[in-house]
Specification:
This protein is an alpha/beta fold. It has helices spanning 37-41, 48-70, 89-106, 115-121, 166-176, 183-191, 216-229, 235-264, 279-292, 308-322; strands at 2-7, 12-19, 27-35, 79-85, 110-114, 134-139, 144-151, 154-160, 268-272, 295-297. It starts with a strand and ends in a 21-residue tail after the last helix.
């Protein structure tokens, strides 16, 4: 079975082909990705209308590229999967429209996939795939969640952010520090030259007794610290504040993840989403895994960002678990807000 996956939830256009059999881990045949970072950089963040228009320009050329690279014809596609949500409504509609149109033309089933399920399952394409069950830390620009994952489609929410996500904390703090877009990688790079213990920044909800997150207060603390440093903080001040900010975020993510493992009795942690590529987070969790004896899994770095491979993979793994599904209506249906536990 060949699955074509289309991702268009925000500011990356991704298309990929996954080949799957009745059993075994599906294999990536080909993928292509276009990032809109350069376009949005001038505005300091994602502009939804521009994102939608750019998806329209990119998705079909990327699909042709992927098919040619894999040596697969349109007739060779068995299932078309697209990101149904969550995400920007206009951007989601582009992927949905292309997927449904192709499905109608080729008389193939079209499946809507949850964006976060794609992230959650993406480590199965790595050289060291996990096995069920596990705890998943889903951490990206718009989402920070801890999930118990017992199988494909069997997800229980353990905790989530009640305000800003970790990625938003990175981006907003970077903006306060005068760094460019995207802020997360820029702050992480500046932090390399800084002292992570110079500024005593808050770790919100660290002792709340639950597995929820909150990062809005951290952003406020960064702003307050900058004001205390004066109108023109020195280069080392900025680097130290960047390092201290990153350390606070990583500390919360790591300690909440450890608490989730303890509360579930599981000994396997999957980390997925864009912030999962952060080197400081990986180093901290790696050290904790050695100390505490749990196994740790990530997607390949190229699959941490939004991509079509994870969407096709999620559809393929759903097929392996549930068998054939059909959608003969070929209708548009996107869900900008969609809890993963209900997927």
């Amino acid at each position: 079975m060949i699955f074509l996956g289309i991702e268009s939830s925000c500011d990356e256009t991704g298309v990929a082909l996954i080949e799957a059999h009745a059993s075994g881990v599906p294999q990536l045949r080909s993928q292509a990705l276009y990032s809109q970072i350069d376009m949005h950089r001038a505005y300091g963040g994602v502009v939804p209308e521009l994102a939608s228009r750019d998806h329209i320009r990119r998705v079909l050329p990327l699909a042709r590229e992927v098919l040619a690279d894999a040596g697969v014809s349109l007739d060779g596609i068995d299932v078309i999967a697209y990101t149904q949500g969550p995400g920007l409504a206009g951007a989601l509609l582009v992927g949905a429209g292309v997927a449904v149109s192709l499905g109608a033309a080729l008389e193939r089933p079209v499946w809507g996939v949850h964006h976060l399920e794609g992230h959650l399952l993406s480590p199965f394409l790595s050289a060291d795939p996990p096995v069920f069950p596990f705890v998943a830390l889903l951490v990206s620009g718009g989402h920070t969640q801890l999930m118990r994952v017992d199988d494909v489609g069997c997800y229980a929410l353990l905790g989530e952010t009640i305000d800003d996500a970790a990625g938003e904390a990175f981006d907003k703090s970077a903006k306060l520090l005068g760094l460019g877009y995207p802020g997360g990688p820029a702050l992480a790079e500046l932090a390399l030259a800084g002292n992570p213990v110079r500024f005593d920044l808050p770790r919100p909800l660290l002792h709340s007794g639950d597995l929820n997150f909150s990062f809005a207060g951290l952003k406020t603390a960064v702003m307050t610290t900058l004001r205390k440093l004066g109108e023109q903080p020195g280069a080392q001040d900025r680097a130290d504040l960047a390092a201290s900010t990153q350390a606070a975020i990583v500390d919360v993510l790591a300690r909440k993840s450890l608490a989730a493992l303890k509360s579930t009795g599981l000994a396997r942690l999957v980390v997925a989403g864009g912030v999962g590529a952060n080197a400081a987070l990986r180093a901290r969790l790696g050290a904790e895994s050695i100390k505490s004896g749990f196994t740790l899994h990530y997607p390949e770095l190229a699959l941490c960002t939004d991509n079509g491979a994870m969407i096709a993979l999620a559809a393929a793994m759903r097929w392996q678990r549930n068998g054939p599904q059909t959608d003969s209506n070929h209708h548009f249906n996107v869900r900008p807000r969609w809890p993963l536990a209900t997927a």
